[in-house]
Design brief:
It is a single chain. This protein is mainly alpha-helical and about 100 residues long. Strand 1, helix 2 and strand 2 form a beta-alpha-beta unit. Helix 3 crosses helix 4. The longest helix has 22 residues.
Length: about 100
């Protein structure tokens, strides 16, 4: 996302580390989950000008994902929508984020 390259790079590194740890611990019957939240009603997102998911709903969706055995959990509507676009069309995902950055300076 434009303007937050360092933040995005850090998130990508955490995702890669999670995948590596998941692989290492699977043989020991230890589950490792990766949570990909979108905009959640927190202090960090208070200045974001778009709809946010409540902390309670996000937490409930994370617990549901773990209960269902999902390794990658998208706990809110925005992250769910963007994940589907990412899986279907990575370049379209990139273009959408670029367009959103220019609409919300």
């Amino acid at each position: 996302m434009a303007g937050v390259g360092g933040y995005c790079a850090a998130k990508a590194a955490v995702t890669s580390a999670t995948q590596a740890i998941r692989t290492e611990l699977k043989s020991k019957n230890i589950n490792v989950y990766c949570i990909f939240p979108g905009p959640i009603e927190t202090d960090m997102a208070k200045d974001f000008n778009f709809s946010k998911t409540s902390v309670v709903v996000a937490a409930e969706n994370i617990i549901a994902g773990i209960t269902e055995g999902k390794e990658d959990i998208f706990p809110d509507p925005v992250s769910q929508e963007l994940s589907q676009l990412w899986f279907r069309d990575p370049k379209g995902f990139e273009k959408r984020l670029c367009a959103a950055a220019y609409q919300h300076p």
